[in-house]
Write a structure and sequence with these properties.
The chain has about 200 residues and is of the alpha/beta class. About 55% of the residues lie in helices and about 10% in strands. The chain has one domain (about 1-25, about 75-195): P-loop containing nucleotide triphosphate hydrolases (Rossmann fold, 3-Layer(aba) Sandwich), CATH 3.40.50.300. The protein has helices at about 15-25, 30-40, 45-55, 60-70, 90-105, 115-125, 135-150, 150-155, 170-180, and strands at about 1-5, 30, 80-85, 110-115, 160-165. It catalyses: AMP + ATP = 2 ADP.
Length: about 200
């Protein structure tokens, strides 16, 4: 299974991705983990990424893409993978499609984890992190709606929309049913049905 999970911050992507990957026996490829591993390992890409983060700047797409390409070339991805946190925008999605087409390993399924903005706001404020102010959270949600949600249209019928509200086990059961085809017919994913 070659899949990706997308959704706003606070939707529970990381938690669900870890469980799915454990059950399917495929690697969970998170861009956050890739950054940390490359920086900790002192790789050239890690040093480059660190230079941007130290300056308070966003790491450019080409650096992130190089890390993703390197990770997808590892042998443990031969039987599949789950991308988490990448692609974040259409430009990255187009790059990824080209890379995977060259290898004959296109994305098969896109899991769209959804929750209303007010639920996400409550969850993130409850974490109590210093950078989780209402203003900062709203800004991140606005960026998600503007840049990441267009991926729903880009991936079309490969997208399965999963309600991310509820207990962790319940959400996981919805994902498992969607992946093995035993759940109800998936809702057609639309950009206006994902909170806002």
């Amino acid at each position: 299974m070659r899949a990706m999970i997308i959704g706003p911050q606070g939707a529970g992507k990381g938690t669900q991705a870890t469980r799915i990957c454990g059950e399917l026996g495929i690697p969970h490829i998170s861009t956050g983990d890739l950054f940390r591993a490359n920086i900790a390992g002192g790789t050239e890409l890690g040093k480059l990424a660190q230079s941007y983060t130290d300056a308070g700047k966003l790491v450019p797409d080409d650096v992130t893409q190089a890390m993703v390409a390197d990770r997808l070339a590892q042998p443990d991805t031969d039987n599949g993978f789950l991308l988490d946190g990448f692609p974040r925008n259409l430009k990255q999605a187009e790059w990824l499609s080209t890379l995977l087409a060259e290898r004959g390993t296109p994305i098969e399924r896109v899991l769209l984890l959804t929750a209303p903005d007010e639920v996400l706001m409550e969850r993130m404020l409850a974490r109590g992190r210093a950078d989780d102010t209402e203003e900062a959270i709203q800004q991140r949600l606005d960026i998600y709606h503007a840049e990441t949600l267009p991926l729903v249209e880009y991936y079309g019928d490969r997208v399965v929309q999963i309600d991310g509200v509820g207990e962790v086990d319940d959400v996981h059961d919805r994902i498992a049913a969607a992946l093995d085809g035993t759940g109800p017919d998936p809702q057609p994913a639309t950009t206006d049905a994902v909170g806002g």
